[in-house]
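Re: [help] complex structure
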Amino acid sequence: MQVVGFSPMLNAIAGLIVWAAHFLLVYGAQATVCWRGLAGATLWGQPLVPAIVLGLTALGLVAVALIGGRAWRRLHSGLASQEGEEQSQFTLWMSLAVTLMAALAMVWEAVPVLILPPCG
Amino acid sequence: MTPPDTAGDALRHDAPLPNPLPRPPDELPRLERIWRSPRGWAFPWTEVNNNWIGVLYLGTAGLFCVLAVILSLLMRAQLAVPGNDLLDQETYNQVFTTHGTMMMFLFAVPAVEALGVYLLPAMLAARDLPFPRLSAYAYWAYAVGGLGFFTSLFFGLAPNGGWFMYPPLTSHEYSPGINADFWLLGIGFIEISAIAGAVEIVVGILRNRAPGMTLARMPLFAWAMLVFAVMIIFAFPAVIWATVLLELERAFDWPFFLPDRGGDPLLRQHLFWFFGHPEVYIIFLPAAGAVSMIVPAMVQTRMVGYGLVAMALVATGFLSFGLWVHHMYATGIPSLSLAFFSGASFAVSVPTGIQVFAWIATIASGKPKLHVPMLFVFGFLFIFVLGGLTGVMVAIVPFDWQAHDTYFIVAHLHYVLIGGMVFPLLAGLYYWAPSAAGWRLSVRLGKWVFWLLFLGVNLTFFPMHISGLIGMPRRVWTYPEGMGLEVWNMLSTASAAVSALGVLLLLVDLARNFRMSPGGPADNPFNAATLEWLPQGNYAARSIPRITSREPLWDQPDLAEQVRQGRHFLPGTVTGLRETLVTSPVEARPQYVAIIPGPAWAHFIAALCTAGFFLSLTVKLLWLAGIFGTVAVSAILYWLWTGTDLGPVVDRADIGGGLCLPVYVSGPDSVSWWAMVVLLLVDGTVFACLGFTHAFLWLSNGDAQWPPPGMGVPEVAFPLGSLALLAGCAGLLWLAGRLLRQGRARAMGGVVLLALPLFLLALGLDLHAVWQAGIRPTLHAFGAATFANQFWQGLHGLMVATMALYLAARAFAGLIDPVRRITFDNVRIFWLYALAQAAAGLCLTHLLPRALGTG
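Output below.
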């Protein structure tokens, strides 16, 4: 079932959906680890909470890079136009801009893990 | 039936105008007759047109604002001198709680929603929003219910636990009266109203734009309202669920928030602020959108950074959901968790900064004229930026620990809300009043209003930063002498009186100079660029313009005259009913002509009874609530039966430019399908909050208490049985769809009546399973959470039963066939959702304790 206009709108906000997933996973994982008294636990020899947070952040950054890269290529492929339901220049541009914002937010949220104790 | 992708050449900017002159002589009179407002005593109760409902809505929000301002003056009078006894402690508690609750729920959200209802159709050149009766229903439920809520103050029954109603203060033990219930149930209808409005606005903006008004050409106010409405869809469910839980705890002793039985008061804080923080942006974004419309008109130049501002609106919409714990810095949550939210709080200031710089750049690139709206925009920038800066201060965790629960926070939030919402709204009032009244409000009075409010607000709230830093706590009815607080409080009180004078002058201006006259003198006094300044009637623009730029009135000379002459699309009516053009969501290509309902009584009666239902529940008159509830549902069913799903009244509609469109579309391209999907997003978000409740209480209790000793997990045969019944029900729904495609509508109705008992049986079986396993809602939070799921599923059982019976009745009445099938589609989508939700509920009850706990 194809809904006209759905996929370009979804693409336009995809970066921020990645941000939302990253935010909930990072916060949920850290809260669970701390509430379960696993502050000192390790994963492959690394402290657990920083490993999870940085791992998820790396994944998130890769995801927004892929989304942003795809939008960039389409935007410069000559297919995009001002008039075209599925390849609108504006939604592609929005998709790209939004990934930058999402990447910035993810990095800002993750950096404290390098400084603060995991559950203190 | 799906619409063909037409449009083609008719939308090109160099194509000839869609309709030739001269127009048939009876075309315009017919359009005017169909859109005429009801006359005599039926007005305004039965009116649904957005021009009238929007202005009524805005006026009512203004009334609630004035009432809440009066409450704030009472508070300031009490705090003018130390040890004052004007208001006693209990009355003061009720006054500040009602002030906050009214400002947030009865003024701020409804006011911006009202602005959307009033402006959007004209701005998008739609004849009306797609579901006018829904807007009218939302308005009346809000107006009547809100007045009922306010009167609780006169009986000493107003809520007194602060606008966020934290337990344990608001639990039954510490708040045994019905004051708290007035908040919990009294605000219920506001949440329904807000969501109804949000459904209307999302669908309206995405599907009812002028042909050629692509997303890239959409006015920034529409972008802001789109983000606003989507945020309501994801934020309000959390407060609805928090409200449901607290009311269940108070009414039936289900201990969600009581730690001695496994509950956790922080659960309420999480749910409330998951709504409460986005709420600030829900209020601010439409105001920012309004500013982005007013500034270009005031300086007569195009908005700088249009794309960036649109992106900033969308990004704010998302990021503001990652801020809720910054209201909970002082609750003992680990500092790394707080740092995530601190990071997100800093991140959200980036898109807000983008907007502020875009406005400054726009002002700098044009020639600002100091009209009254522009004064308010400058006031907004000054006050809001100060509020934003103190916001960055309190986003820093250690600073927040010092300022928490002091007047510094009171100062910050009033700077943000008055600066970010009230000043833009007043700018909007002075800017858009001519579009409703045909002439401007007074320039002289407007300048007085501005200066009184600007000075009054700053001198009221700036001193509060200082009294807060000295240590004056929020929500306390008095303070002692000798702490250095006297001078700051007296200054705040005196300046509040100055602001009140400003409000009074505004009312004088409105009373003297504002008279509704839709279809009155066409005027564009500020030479603005967007479509709400086209000549308007109740039917909005005479013909629906073809748009080729973001600033059509600047770029398409003679557009106003062409539209007025009827040379653009749909210059009259094709069905003899009220109708509007439905376009595609991204590119705004015409898809079909939708028939929309006109004046009626049913939605009005339904709204009165909805408000009556909640108010009678509050005062525990269950029999009266039963009567109101039944009448409300019956009125809604009557409204649906007579006013919706009319089918293809005519085969094809010629709207001009060679475009021949259907007048009835079902499936994923119909606006009705979109509205149902948006509603399900609301529903799904509530269910996600239910899942969060389970996960949070499990974490807070530990594995050994999930389930606690004495409660078991039901035998696995029970959930398997329920699943089989749900699957059977889904199978029958598939069969019903097949029968309808074959044209056997009555057989479809029969199958639907077979499917209903299967669904109800599945829900009943699970209730039985839970009960026989010894799970009780009052003994422990585990039981309470389990029964919260039963409650939610049962509610859906009731809704599906109503919808299924309605569908079967329509099928047997011959009102459904393979073409005319929107009723069937909507019931089926909702029902399938309810099946999936029931299956997910089974996982919560049966799988989660097995996977996580010791059960």
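The two ends of chain A are 50 Å apart (CA to CA).
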